[in-house]
Amino acid sequence: MDFAQASCTEFVTVLASNAPVPGGGGASALVGAIGTALGNMVGSLTVGKKKYADVEAEIIALKAKCDNLQKELLEQIEQDAIGFEPLSKAYGIPKDNPDRDRILEDATIVACKVPMKIMELCCESLEAIAVFAEKGSRLAVSDAGCGAVCVKAALQAASLNVFINTKTLKNRELAEDMNKKCLGMLDKYSAMADGIFETVKAGFFK
C-alpha cells in the first residue's frame, strides 16, 4: 500500500495494527504535512487581499516553498516504511549468525535517516509558518498557530524515532553526532513553535 495515497481511515487502521509500517516516522511525516498545509492555507487567504499587498510577493514565495515541503513530507511516509524494512528483517536474523551485528548496525543507521529528514523539513516548515503568523491574514491566524502546534508534534515524534535507534548503535561517535543534531533542532524549533502558539493565542485576549 502507498500510505501517502491511502484514505485517512485506511492509514489510521493500518497504523493501529501490528503491521511494522507505518509507524511513528510515517505518522510524524503526515502530521508535519498537515501542519505545513495549515500554515500554507493562511498564505492562500492572504494573497490577493489589498490589505496585504505589501507582503504579497513574500507570501507567494513562501507558499511555493510550503507546496514543496508538503510534497516532501508526504513522500517521507513511504520512505520511512522503506527505510525501516531492512531493520525489521534484521531483527529476525538468528543470533548465532556471524553477520547479524553488522547487518543490524547498517540497518539501524538507515532507519535513522528518514526521521532525521522529517525533522529537517519540519524546521523549514516552522520558519515559514512563523512568517505566515506574523504577516498573513488576521482572519486565519489561528490556522498558523494550529500549524505550528502540529509541526512541533511532528518534529518531536520524528526525533523519538531517531533516538530509539541511536540508542542501540555500536558506533557511539555516529550515534552522538546524530543525537546532537536532533537535540539542536528540538531546542531551537520547539521554542519557535511555542512562540508562534503563544503569540497567536495572546492576540485573542487583547
Describe this entry's structure for a reader:
- The chain has 206 residues and is mostly helical.
- It has a single domain, classed as Up-down Bundle (Four Helix Bundle (Hemerythrin (Met), subunit A)).
- Helices cover 77% and strands 0% of the residues.
- Helix 4 (100-135) runs antiparallel to helix 5.
- The protein is elongated.
- The termini are far apart.
**Beta fraction of the residues?**
under 5%
Low-confidence stretches: none
- Backbone CA Rg: 19 Å
The first-level CATH class name:
Mainly Alpha
The amount of helix comes to over 70%
Tally of individual helices: 6
Instruction: Report the span from N to C terminus.
Output: 48 Å
Q: How many separate domains make up the residues?
A: 1
Order of helices and strands: HHHHHH
> What's the count of strands?
0
Q: Kindly identify the CATH topology.
A: Four Helix Bundle (Hemerythrin (Met), subunit A)
Mean pLDDT figure: 96
The helix/strand class is mainly alpha
CATH H level, superfamily name: Formiminotetrahydrofolate cyclodeaminase monomer, up-and-down helical bundle
> What gross morphology would you assign?
elongated
Q: Largest sheet at a glance? A: none
The CATH architecture name reads: Up-down Bundle
